[in-house]
Amino acid sequence: MPRQRWSFVEPHPAEATALAKAARLPQVLAELLVARGIVQPADAFAFLNPELGHLHDPFLMLGMDAAVARLERAIAAREPVLLYGDYDVDGTTAVVLLKTAIEMLGGVVRFHVPHRLREGYGLQSSVLEAACAEGVRLVITVDTGMRAFAEAETARKLGLDLIITDHHLLEAGDAVPHALAILNPNQPACAYPEKFLCGAAIALKLAQAVLERRDQVRTREKTLPSFLKMAAIATIADAVPLKGENRVIAALGLRELRRPAGLGLRALFAAAALDPAARAITGFDVAFRLAPRINAAGRMDVASEVIELFTTRDQARAAELAAKLERFNGERRSTEAAALTAIEARLGSDAELAADRLLVIDGQGWHRGVIGILASRVVERTAKPAIVVSVEDGVAHGSGRSVDGFQLLNAIESCADLFTRFGGHAFAVGFALPAERLPELKRRLRLYAEEHLASREPEHLLRIHAELPLDRITSVLAGWLRKLEPFGHGNPEPVFVARRARLLAPPRLMKERHVRLELAQDSVQPPPLAGSSGALRAIGWSLAFRAQELGLAQGSLIDLAYRIRENEHPDFGGLEAEIAGIELA
Ligand SMILES: [Mn+2]
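A: This is the predicted complex of the input protein with manganese (II) ion.
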């Protein structure tokens, strides 16, 4: 088990105190806001109270005027429009959003989502040719297209108008494909204020633009709020930072998910055992319960059924499709579990492999839809960057995930000559190469890791956002902290530290793996705040080993890293701490 290292977010006490005073916020909340770059009371108010009026004008986006004009022409003439998506949550929900908007306005839509294994990522010329032969004259890509130079050329030759909507990054000085319009706030000339929209959110902006030109009031009051549901699911699933406009989309969309109107969403909720009437849907529910089910279609088979699920008006069909996603997700899980068992056995028996700083683990025929997830699991367990490779028919497909502070893409780029294709970013990479080059890849990556990772001990980094003694925890404070939700990338759930907390009783083990501590703040500070007893129950999931390792007993003094939880159990409900880490004080 790799060790944990606590890393403290740099405090800005002067700014935090000023903000707390000016905006009348609890000090610790002001500290958390300042850490997010929010120092002005008005910005704090907007952050804590997201509303529809905070969405930006879509026409601030470069290319929006041209895209809207061309799309309006197609809708008016009932020209069939081809939407070309991607197979993940972001790509499929983007198709759903634009398809719904165009059809609401009376337009005609077809769509194509590539098959992950048979077609692969990105625009395909053959699909453009077939669509052209069937009378399509306008193609709109969603969540893909920034690198489709050859396909854009095919479109031009065929006389197709192409609108690319995509959020993928450009390298400085990169050319862009030839297109009628490109909607991507990452283009240097684009002045759109939010640079980190996901693909579905860019599709949402295009939908918002055409819908508002038809009927601004109705769009603002009815259509847009309902569209935010899909955009929120994609925004959370695609792991864009939940700040700025993304926060507005995620927060309002989650609120709308409390009353899902669509048959598809309702069927998906039922399949995932989520009941929005009983409990508000959280970012966690979206990231860990809805998104894996939506993604399972594209991982295991074909993602186009996701689009049918979210657009069907037939209840029986919705239930059938949701059941199918459930089955795919079950298959994905068992495929993943079997491969993970094999990987763990390998790491357990091959000491040389297990000692590597950068793990490269290959297997025959592992499902390519899950190798990225497998790499993430290996990183979680080992705290080392990891690449999982599936070998099939003489071709090795790899997917890698990294750790804080190590640029995995640089490692991959140092072996560029070995690959038939590769790509990614600092933390996640993907590649393919002929299987016979795999030993050479491993040899070179081992050398690279020796050079760049040798001085690093594998360790899990725990970021701690603020100090909060246990006797400062009240339900009023918990209410304020809830206003920071939804949590996710760029807006992490706060982790607090309480120094010198004393165990009031011996640690209680639960099911031998978990541990429960009764704690009180051991301090000579002022008495506990009203509403706080100063004592708190703390639950450590899978941390029984840690309590034993530290020899915790009644009276032990510890530094506790924790998150605040509201336990809704009728008998022992109330505020408690979920333990993120324990050190002896
Ligand atoms: Mn995307």
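The chain has a mean pLDDT of 93. The pocket of manganese (II) ion is lined by residues 90, 143, 198-199, 238 (CB under 6 Å).
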